[in-house]
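Suppose you are handed a protein chain with no further information: no name, no annotation, nothing but its sequence. What can you learn? This example shows the usual starting point.
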Amino acid sequence: MDTLSDSLMLGLDDLVADVAYARRHEDLGRLALLCYCELRPWARQAREERLAELAWALCTRATPGSRALFLRRVDVVIEELEGICCRAGRTVTAELLLAARNTGI
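A reasonable first move is to predict its three-dimensional structure. Written in structure tokens, the prediction is:
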């Protein structure tokens, strides 16, 4: 990954806060909206194609049969986002995402 610009770093921090909050509260609609409308465009701009693909697939594949399955799919997206945070030197934000994923386990 190339070094992220200041605006991409700020965007990353904002996205992490929004995604972590929605995941902790299991707000499925908000998670879907964030993935498709905010996370995917951010990932494309940051040239994080795997994250963009995961976010797109989450919202365009067949509807999962259960809430738990949807959350598992979201957690795959979040894991990729955690990796991006780590590579960008944002370990605190990566830990925030990890804690959000582990809520309710």
